[in-house]
Amino acid sequence: MKDCIFCKIIAGEIPVKTKVFEDDKVFAFEDINPQAPVHILIVPKKHISCLNEASNENLELLGYIQLAASQIAKQKGLEGGYRLVNNCGADAGQTVFHIHYHLLGGRVFAWPPG
Ligand code: AMP
Ligand code: ZN
User: What is the pTM of this model?
Assistant: First the structure.
């Protein structure tokens, strides 16, 4: 989608510092403003603005992202645990309106989140 920063990253129009994983469905890269020692964004190549815009058509893709996250967590050595976060909407802190999941690890997280 035009004017979407993550679509531009996926298309190679904006470089990322560290690409972590790519296949035909997802693109994963390190967050530019990390909130934990491991902070990776897992983004579907298909533009969906947020979880509320996803439908049954996207069921498989959403499951695929979660399994990709667990694979990446294994590769990153996050045996102790990790957090997988989706911010949906402005109140949740979503700033990029192309659905993405934050894979956070490498430290202990508090609950409830802020
Ligand atoms: P959210 O606030 O959930 O929408 O998350 C958007 C995330 O994208 C933030 O954690 C930003 O730091 C991250 N981000 C924005 N632009 C870039 C970029 N060019 N490269 C890597 N991460 C980015
Ligand atoms: Zn997009």
Answer: 0.98
